[in-house]
Automatic annotation (TrEMBL):
Organism: Halorubellus litoreus
InterPro entries associated with the record: tRNA_endonuc-like_dom_sf
Gene3D superfamilies: 3.40.1350.10
Superkingdom classification of source: Archaea
Identification of the protein by name: DUF91 domain-containing protein
Length: 396
């Protein structure tokens, strides 16, 4: 008996993504008979299968260290560790990724909430999760317990990956994987956007096929990665590496006291509801008279682009706004050109969306960005940008 698959592919926004797979079996090597998709009986059955065969989850080796793990934001389905010591959260869904209780919003928001809760866990915390999981594997006779040799997570990691890591290098990154029988087009598009914004997010389809002419035939399992990213982004940070949360938060926390009152915020987190782990976080003022579409952006790219840049943007992206009069908003910004330029900012007279007002620093290395005096300088200018922006739009 021989099995082969025909996988349709289609170009979409510069990427390849999978269409429904057609699988055939060559009966006695002669007659091709199509195998039909046979849905899993329940989400629990899907979880049981993936727990016992974790190689279906990703095209890389993963050590499962938790099942139905309770965290502050809920209960995650499976928790793993990759070869770099990063945590990997698996959110499983029977059927397509946006159906039933898992809406298109929740199927992406849930693993993000789980990853956020796991962000603060130390090696000792992960070791506690692993110890509890190891006990449950023995007590409940769960299959798929390979790699659980040893009394600690470090022992199991060394046995599973044939290498070891310092305890302090665990959990440098939090990875999220959506696993469903079908990843919808909308889920895939949303996941790609979040991935490009800096989240370590992947989507995987796992389907079961059975020979259409024989209900008693053994099923065939097929797994395919629909949304992926380069492995380099989750490799351990080198000494010259930089993280968005680290530098973005350092700058904003220094600037916050200067614009706390004008933005009507009690903490920096209120101004950045999406957090600081983005390539270009944009501040959302809480002042009721400040236009929602006017944002204050921070972009720190010393290695990729050799610069640090502040800007005022006018954008409705990600906002539920019926209409944004960009011409009127950018007109008010340009009316304040003298105020901005007196404080050393450049006002572009042709742009209507991004980088209308900017401040720019050329930097050669991460060391330049980590310099305390430099951070103070950028934070001071960022405070000026926000303050002048509020003087422009808020009637004081």
């Amino acid at each position: 008996m021989e099995i082969f698959s025909i996988l349709g592919q289609q170009s979409y926004i510069g990427e390849w993504w999978t269409l429904p797979m057609r699988t055939f079996e060559l009966v006695r090597g002669e007659k091709p008979v199509e195998r039909e998709v046979e849905p899993f009986q329940s989400e629990g059955k899907l979880e049981e299968l993936l727990h016992s065969v974790p190689s279906l989850l990703l095209e890389e080796d993963v050590l499962i260290i938790g099942r139905q793990v309770g965290v502050d934001t809920g209960t995650l389905d499976l928790l793993g560790i990759d070869k770099y010591g990063n945590v990997v959260v698996f959110e499983l869904k029977k059927g397509d990724s946006g159906s039933g209780s898992a809406s298109e919003g929740s199927i992406l928001s849930q693993p993000q909430e789980y990853a956020q809760a796991l962000h603060w866990l130390t090696y000792e915390d992960l070791d506690d999760i692993f110890t509890e999981y190891s006990t449950e594997v023995g007590a409940k006779d769960w299959p798929g317990s390979d790699g659980l040799d040893g009394d600690s997570l470090l022992d199991a990691f060394e046995s599973h990956f044939r290498t070891t890591l310092p305890q302090e290098t665990f959990n440098q990154n939090q990875r999220m994987v959506i696993v469903a029988e079908e990843i919808t087009d909308r889920t895939a598009a949303n996941a790609r956007y979040l991935r490009d914004e800096g989240l370590h997010l992947q989507c995987v389809e796992v389907q079961r096929f059975r020979l259409s002419t024989d209900a008693d035939s053994s099923p065939v399992l097929v797994a395919s990665t629909v949304v992926d990213y380069d492995e380099k982004r989750v490799q351990p940070r080198e000494e010259d590496a930089i993280t968005y949360p680290e530098i973005n938060e350092a700058i904003v926390s220094r600037a916050f006291p200067a614009f706390k009152d004008v933005t009507h915020a009690t903490s920096p987190e209120e101004l950045f509801p999406g957090g600081f782990d983005h390539r270009e976080p944009r501040m959302h003022s809480q002042h009721p008279e400040h236009p929602d579409a006017v944002r204050y952006a921070l972009r720190v790219k010393p290695l990729e682009e050799g610069h640090v840049r502040l800007s005022i943007d006018v954008t409705s992206r990600g906002l539920e706004l019926e209409e944004v009069d960009k011409t009127a908003l950018t007109g008010r910004i340009r009316d304040a050109t003298d105020c901005f330029e007196q404080r050393g900012f450049h006002v572009d007279q042709s742009r209507n969306t991004y980088r209308i007002v900017t401040a720019h620093w050329d930097v050669d290395s991460v060391a330049d960005v980590r310099d305390e005096a430099f951070l103070d300088e950028v934070a001071g200018r960022y405070a000026d940008l926000v303050t002048i922006g509020h003087e422009t739009f808020v009637d004081t």
